[in-house]
């Protein structure tokens, strides 16, 4: 008990210090972010972009799809370009060509090497010089550069408008014509994209050859190359990771591992009687399966747009379901179904643990279900309407699609979801309260479940921290609080604690051992995980020390993942502990799969892009997608399915249970995911990384690469894996249908017996 108390003290201290540092970093990002000027003017005083147009252009881009339609500073989707890299290259080549035509009356490509070198040096000096005038709050550019900016701005207004000559390019970008219909928004869009490229090229005040985005993206034309710090901290992070893994192996080897207890002779939960509120959670799990099917369907459509652009096997599907909508639903539903599975698990196990059914608990569970269903349907419908009908920036922010990856629903829906999560925490706390008060061996686990639930509810408030006019650097800072800390942090702690509690209740692990282990695991995970959030923010207009902190702590995130295979092996052994444990075989195998994908998806593929030098070249490429798919579904998705199966086991007739359907479900999902990641996404990411390193980020994201024979072949090579994976989801749906049919048959049978009586 004394040792556990000390661990809790360390956990509290680490969390307090880590969040204090993360908060301080946020303040520094706010102070050091690239300035947004009132005006961008030429040297002769001509206005290029007026007051408020950078902000309005940002809102226009977000309302047009935002991070679902290309990226800015590397964050978003992968079919359309990174707009900051694209603008930077277009402006640089336009300016260089203007000088070549005027000074040498020839195209740049036709000049001698000495003249090309002269213009390249002139270009670097012109574009890297910081001409922001703080006193007047303006950016001043030369007349020549102003001409280049106007030319690129015309391209962007035509692209996001309906310029017929750019229709083929729009198809390659999976864009619909008139992505922005409001003339003032369309005029302002280039201001935001120019500003994002300007921040990526212009030297910071007092620095030389170091831009606001730490020289991201790679653009050899202006010597945008990795900073020295990116290389040094990458080396240091690898050394730290290797040393920390070695230390963990030594500690684990030296520690005397306590054997699991002898399993009970019979299933301890066999006679567990579900309370009314526990029974009410069953519909949550069927909705989860429906969301999985919808998410997979949208994923198939979204992936196919990478080849046909706006069609689905010739049918002009994008007219009613644009890429930005299909991808929004695909990413948003992934988070929603995983979260719903975990929330329902909490509501199911709370009365089972405490043996207490609070008054009106069933009513609360039912009301929360319909409230969550309303949010899912409402946010999806308004997001689709806003995109199809071009309802503008205000509608997009408040009701439609905010254009931010993984947190795209409008602000009103975010507020409602936050309220729903607080209601969930309240319902969970009411049911757990007797167990929280009563001293027991497993009380530490129950406390961890409740504390992580409180963090899940509370930390969703970070989705409300940015406003409609917030600086883009600050939006990214808070967005990653939500995506990294909420999804990858506290949900994982909650799920790990729930799994430990379930194994304890089954008598497969000792409660005292689990108490200490779960606190220690949380310490190890959050020690790297909280400040590891910063690895997402290396190149988003942040101070250079963010690279150092993010690199070192994201390396520590990998350390516990390197040992997770041991826990997976122990879980496999537990699945063989007694004949009755086979009842929970597929739940336990899902937990084992979580261990595998934690090591491969989160660990191996995650760390392959997490070092500053790797991410510099690969941010916004398909290696990120490979890591995202393997980690999000492999870890959190399989965890959600494992919890779903465990709960349905106690909520369903054992006669209706079908291991024959769960077996192909499990193997198809895991094999299909592996095929998708390693046959298609990883090779595509490596091919793009070659293009990024050799030529520049603009090239890696250009149609020349995205629609090359190699890339389109790799997209088609996803099909076998996608088919196998989709078959797995169909087996899961058939399994759920069997449970529903069995329930109806049981009700019909009982009605007949009642009539006979």
Please outline the helices and strands.
Blueprint: H1 2-32, E1 39-42, E2 47-49, H2 53-63, E3 71-72, E4 75-76, H3 83-104, H4 113-128, E5 132-133, E6 138-141, H5 143-160, H6 167-173, H7 183-201, H8 228-254, H9 276-280, H10 282-308, H11 323-354, H12 361-389, H13 393-398, H14 411-437, H15 443-459, H16 472-505, H17 511-532, H18 545-562, H19 564-575, H20 585-610, H21 612-618, H22 622-651, H23 659-694, H24 697-700, H25 703-706, H26 709-716, H27 718-756
Parallel strand pairs: 1-6
Antiparallel strand pairs: 1-2, 3-4, 5-6
Helix pairs in contact: 1-17, 2-7, 3-4, 3-5, 3-7, 5-7, 8-18, 8-21, 10-11, 10-27, 11-12, 11-14, 11-16, 11-22, 12-14, 14-15, 15-16, 15-17, 16-17, 17-18, 18-20, 19-20, 20-22, 20-23, 22-23, 23-26, 23-27
Task: Report on this structure.
Helix content is 71%, strand content 2%. With 757 residues, the chain is mainly α. A four-stranded mixed sheet has the order 2-1-6-5. A two-stranded antiparallel ribbon has the order 3-4. A hairpin with a 4-residue loop joins strand 5 and strand 6. The termini are far apart. InterPro entries: Cyt_c_oxase-like_su1_sf (IPR036927), Cyt_C_Oxase_1 (IPR000883), NorB_cytochrome_c-like (IPR054309). This is Nitric-oxide reductase large subunit.
């Amino acid at each position: 008990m004394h040792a556990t108390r000390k661990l809790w003290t360390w956990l509290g201290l680490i969390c307090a210090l880590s969040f204090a540092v993360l908060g301080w970093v946020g303040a520094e990002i706010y102070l050091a972010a690239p300035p947004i000027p009132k005006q961008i003017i030429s040297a002769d005083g001509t206005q290029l972009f007026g007051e408020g147009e950078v902000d309005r252009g940002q809102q226009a881009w977000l309302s047009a799809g935002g991070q679902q339609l290309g990226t800015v500073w590397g964050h978003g989707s992968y079919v359309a370009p990174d707009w900051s890299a694209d603008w930077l290259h277009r402006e640089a080549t336009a300016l260089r060509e203007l000088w070549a035509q005027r000074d040498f009356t020839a195209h740049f490509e036709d000049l001698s090497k000495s003249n090309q070198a002269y213009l390249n040096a002139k270009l670097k000096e012109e574009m890297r010089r910081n001409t922001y005038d703080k006193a007047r709050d303006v950016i001043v550019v030369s007349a020549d550069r102003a001409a280049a900016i106007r030319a690129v701005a015309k391209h962007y207004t035509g692209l996001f408008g309906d310029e017929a000559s750019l229709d083929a390019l729009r198809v390659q970008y999976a864009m619909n014509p008139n992505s922005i219909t409001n003339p003032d928004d369309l005029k302002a869009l280039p201001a935001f994209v120019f500003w994002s490229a300007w921040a990526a090229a212009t030297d910071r005040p007092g620095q030389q050859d170091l831009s606001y985005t730490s020289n991201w993206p790679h653009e050899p034309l202006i010597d945008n190359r990795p900073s020295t710090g990116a290389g040094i901290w990458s080396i240091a992070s690898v050394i730290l990771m290797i040393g920390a893994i070695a230390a963990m192996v030594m500690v684990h080897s030296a520690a005397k591992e306590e054997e699991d207890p002898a399993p009970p002779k019979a299933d301890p939960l066999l006679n567990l009687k579900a309370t009314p509120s526990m029974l009410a959670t069953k519909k949550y799990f069927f909705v989860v399966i429906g969301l999985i099917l919808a998410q997979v369907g949208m994923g198939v459509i979204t992936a196919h747009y990478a080849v046909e652009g706006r069609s689905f096997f010739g049918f002009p599907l994008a007219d009613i379901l644009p890429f930005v909508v299909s991808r929004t639903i695909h990413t948003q539903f992934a988070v929603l179904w995983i979260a719903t599975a975990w929330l329902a698990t909490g509501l199911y196990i709370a009365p089972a643990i405490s043996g207490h059914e609070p008054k009106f608990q069933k009513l609360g569970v039912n009301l929360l279900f319909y409230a969550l269903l309303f949010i899912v349907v409402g946010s999806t419908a308004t997001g689709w309407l806003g995109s199809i009908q071009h309802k503008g920036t205000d509608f997009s922010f408040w009701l439609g699609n905010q254009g931010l990856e993984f947190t795209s629903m409008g602000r009103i829906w975010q507020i409602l979801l936050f309220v729903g999560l607080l209601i969930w925490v309240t319902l969970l706390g009411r049911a757990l309260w007797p167990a929280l008060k009563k001293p027991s061996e497993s009380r530490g686990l129950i406390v961890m479940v409740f504390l992580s639930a409180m963090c899940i509810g509370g930390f969703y408030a970070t989705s409300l921290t940015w406003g409609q006019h917030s600086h883009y650097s600050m939006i990214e800072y808070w967005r990653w609080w939500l995506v990294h800390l909420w999804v990858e942090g506290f949900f994982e702690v909650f799920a790990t604690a729930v799994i430990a509690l379930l194994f304890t209740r089954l008598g497969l692990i000792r409660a005292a051992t689990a108490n200490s282990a779960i606190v220690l695991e949380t310490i190890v995970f959050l020690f790297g995980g909280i400040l590891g959030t910063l690895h997402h923010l290396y190149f988003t207009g942040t101070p250079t020390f963010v690279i150092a902190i993010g690199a070192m702590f994201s390396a520590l995130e990998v350390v516990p993942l390197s040992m997770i295979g041991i826990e997976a092996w122990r879980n496999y052994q537990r699945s063989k502990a007694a004949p009755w444990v086979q009842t929970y075989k597929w739940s336990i195998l899902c937990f084992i799969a979580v261990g595998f994908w934690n090591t491969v998806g989160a660990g191996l593929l995650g760390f392959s892009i997490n070092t500053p030098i790797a991410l510099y070249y690969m941010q916004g490429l398909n290696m990120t997608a490979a890591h995202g798919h393997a980690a999000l579904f492999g870890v959190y998705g399989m965890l959600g399915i494992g919890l779903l199966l465990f709960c349905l086991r106690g909520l369903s007739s054992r006669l209706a249970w079908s291991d024959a359907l769960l077996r192909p479900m499990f193997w198809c999902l895991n094999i299909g995911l592996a095929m998708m990641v390693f046959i298609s996404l990883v090779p595509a990411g490596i091919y793009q990384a070659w293009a990024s390193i050799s030529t520049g980020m603009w090239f890696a994201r250009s149609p020349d690469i995205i629609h090359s024979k190699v890339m389109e072949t790799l997209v088609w090579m996803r099909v076998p894996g996608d088919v196998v994976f989709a078959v797995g989801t169909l087996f899961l749906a058939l399994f759920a249908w069997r449970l529903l049919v069995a329930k109806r048959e049981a009700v019909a049978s009982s009605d007949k017996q009642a009539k006979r009586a």
